[in-house]
């Protein structure tokens, strides 16, 4: 039998481990020794998600069948080498541990701290944004700290399964547009969704943004989703808890154990795994198996370098040797399936950091792989359009996994079905000299057969970079980079630094001003208001300057590569620098379509963007200008900014300024309805632009239309509505003397209305649906059919491409109308 105690040395620290045979999870027999071993195995993946964050602990020293101890402050006897930071709470200062090493994790295992909870901010961001240094922070400023993560907690109510949470997770992903989201099955009940933040939002801002997303999804899915806190509303629904973005709140850390009956884990997952109809929570042994097979799906999230956790890599185990830079490369390839070099783990080769190669890669779409030797590997970018030949055009470069040095000579056929399947040939190769090498900028001089001269690679966000051919082609002396002195490959003559462009660089940190929900009744003095359309698209701030175009979503994420056709904006501005506010939209039958827009929002890889943009082109509809040629316009009146905007040469077919709508408000709203837009935005003519703030100077007023419908069935309610109607199934005239299915309505019911409906529906019960040939299987499941005799009225937002009503609300029965009247007197609704 293993010893019950031991003294181990971890990271140079001696740790006394005791009671190692104590069973902490009686149901599985998992011992304290196994918990400590798990922390040691998972440390490489877990620590990046804990680093520099205050860790709150829940301890079960006597096992999970007993009551836990909850700790914020460090207990007496904490080893002096455990790093700590202080937060001043209302009841006094508390020292929190920082988990920055396997040694600290081992100590936490020793004290049976099974659950580790952290906020979405780090001490570094808190100090920088609040105190301007690294001193103590106070809980009074939690709402002002700047988090680097956004989290949604999808909490299933009674009667809801984990697969239902996965369904809601996909809806959140769609609503988030270009943001890369990583799902984590919490190990307890639900799912957490994480997105990277660039630090421009405060915790208060992040909570408000997450709340808006949650409320929008509740409106889209009222039968399954609730965004309000009241527990009485949660039966049969998934609660989207947006409040964990509050600076004072914490969430279970990824890879933390849970104090449940079995040793489950808050496990990062891929979206592919989340689609499993038998999705379940994972125990720690299963998590270790996944990590042995492929990288952490959250890898890179902390610095915005995560691609959305689409799939895990291949089945090859991670290398444990010094060449961990090639872990990702190996995980995506198998040596017995591809002719590419797949070296075994070992020492990386030493070189002069002066080799480059450009490979022409005919995969699903032609692109070029640009690779630079650096510290024993080839640092790699995929450049869809190849190395830019002129200084006037920047090309997208997507940072990919490091490749082995042997890849510099590789040319051949990668089998179809394997990663990167297709033909690879060497387009050019040679040597290069480094002028600058930082995490966000690389400047090099290429000496190749085709590619020659000075180039800059500039990181714009996440894995997306721009490759730029520099105007001054004179080689500069090789400079010291960020981590070691450089050795020039040949003597060069020092020259003055190239002159900067006279075109000013506009600010890149402006966030969009937000509108408050309102109605036409809120527009009192209509002479003061101006009216614009509200469209079903994606809000974006466009920055155009010397470095080209950058598009940032409302969340602050760089979405430039997702919409390459909008690069024409820089050409239209004809030398101007500007910051513009607008909506990226996709059109269907001449109107904005969120359904079509979704086909573009989550596409990030260059080859996929090129494929989808042919079928779903987008436009940029611009409605405000925030900065022009280095001059801030934020304090200018809306009317003045609008005149400046309309004077700019934005008249292309892709980027344009839509005209305002004529007032008064009701006429403007009616005009937007005629165009089948989502509604209008009313803006005060003398209002200034308030970046990142929600203001009553802008009011968003949505269109809701009325429609008479036929009730053809109903779905039984759950939770508070158990025993009565959950949703009504609706039909409308099909234009040929019959009916077709039009969707469901599950909101707008009072208790009195529900009683009225039950009395009216009971005598109409039928064995089959009157529209069985047009109703989707998912909607038909569990439905109770009725004869199509009841006419009612609903309020709705719009029609979906599947000819279903969207954003419906029940208005009441229409006893004055018959189904025959409806069929005889109604044209079919829009399709």
From TrEMBL:
<feature type="compositionally biased region" description="Basic and acidic residues">
    <location>
        <begin position="502"/>
        <end position="511"/>
    </location>
</feature>
<dbReference type="GO" id="GO:0005524">
    <property type="term" value="F:ATP binding"/>
</dbReference>
<dbReference type="GO" id="GO:0006310">
    <property type="term" value="P:DNA recombination"/>
</dbReference>
<dbReference type="GO" id="GO:0004527">
    <property type="term" value="F:exonuclease activity"/>
</dbReference>
<dbReference type="GO" id="GO:0006281">
    <property type="term" value="P:DNA repair"/>
</dbReference>
<protein>
    <recommendedName>
        <fullName>DNA ligase (ATP)</fullName>
        <ecNumber>6.5.1.1</ecNumber>
    </recommendedName>
</protein>
<keyword id="KW-0378">Hydrolase</keyword>
<dbReference type="InterPro" id="IPR012310">
    <property type="entry name" value="DNA_ligase_ATP-dep_cent"/>
</dbReference>
<dbReference type="InterPro" id="IPR016059">
    <property type="entry name" value="DNA_ligase_ATP-dep_CS"/>
</dbReference>
<dbReference type="InterPro" id="IPR014145">
    <property type="entry name" value="LigD_pol_dom"/>
</dbReference>
<keyword id="KW-0540">Nuclease</keyword>
<dbReference type="Pfam" id="PF13298">
    <property type="entry name" value="LigD_N"/>
</dbReference>
<keyword id="KW-0234">DNA repair</keyword>
<keyword id="KW-0511">Multifunctional enzyme</keyword>
<keyword id="KW-0548">Nucleotidyltransferase</keyword>
<keyword id="KW-0227">DNA damage</keyword>
<dbReference type="Pfam" id="PF01068">
    <property type="entry name" value="DNA_ligase_A_M"/>
</dbReference>
<keyword id="KW-0479">Metal-binding</keyword>
<keyword id="KW-0547">Nucleotide-binding</keyword>
<dbReference type="Pfam" id="PF21686">
    <property type="entry name" value="LigD_Prim-Pol"/>
</dbReference>
<dbReference type="InterPro" id="IPR014146">
    <property type="entry name" value="LigD_ligase_dom"/>
</dbReference>
<feature type="compositionally biased region" description="Basic and acidic residues">
    <location>
        <begin position="320"/>
        <end position="339"/>
    </location>
</feature>
<dbReference type="InterPro" id="IPR012309">
    <property type="entry name" value="DNA_ligase_ATP-dep_C"/>
</dbReference>
<keyword id="KW-0067">ATP-binding</keyword>
<dbReference type="GO" id="GO:0003887">
    <property type="term" value="F:DNA-directed DNA polymerase activity"/>
</dbReference>
<keyword id="KW-0239">DNA-directed DNA polymerase</keyword>
<keyword id="KW-0808">Transferase</keyword>
<keyword id="KW-0269">Exonuclease</keyword>
<dbReference type="GO" id="GO:0003910">
    <property type="term" value="F:DNA ligase (ATP) activity"/>
</dbReference>
<dbReference type="InterPro" id="IPR052171">
    <property type="entry name" value="NHEJ_LigD"/>
</dbReference>
<dbReference type="InterPro" id="IPR014144">
    <property type="entry name" value="LigD_PE_domain"/>
</dbReference>
<dbReference type="GO" id="GO:0003677">
    <property type="term" value="F:DNA binding"/>
</dbReference>
<feature type="region of interest" description="Disordered">
    <location>
        <begin position="296"/>
        <end position="349"/>
    </location>
</feature>
<dbReference type="InterPro" id="IPR012340">
    <property type="entry name" value="NA-bd_OB-fold"/>
</dbReference>
<keyword id="KW-0233">DNA recombination</keyword>
<comment type="similarity">
    <text>In the N-terminal section; belongs to the LigD polymerase family.</text>
</comment>
<comment type="similarity">
    <text>In the C-terminal section; belongs to the ATP-dependent DNA ligase family.</text>
</comment>
<keyword id="KW-0436">Ligase</keyword>
<dbReference type="Pfam" id="PF04679">
    <property type="entry name" value="DNA_ligase_A_C"/>
</dbReference>
<dbReference type="GO" id="GO:0046872">
    <property type="term" value="F:metal ion binding"/>
</dbReference>
<feature type="compositionally biased region" description="Low complexity">
    <location>
        <begin position="486"/>
        <end position="501"/>
    </location>
</feature>
<feature type="domain" description="ATP-dependent DNA ligase family profile">
    <location>
        <begin position="611"/>
        <end position="734"/>
    </location>
</feature>
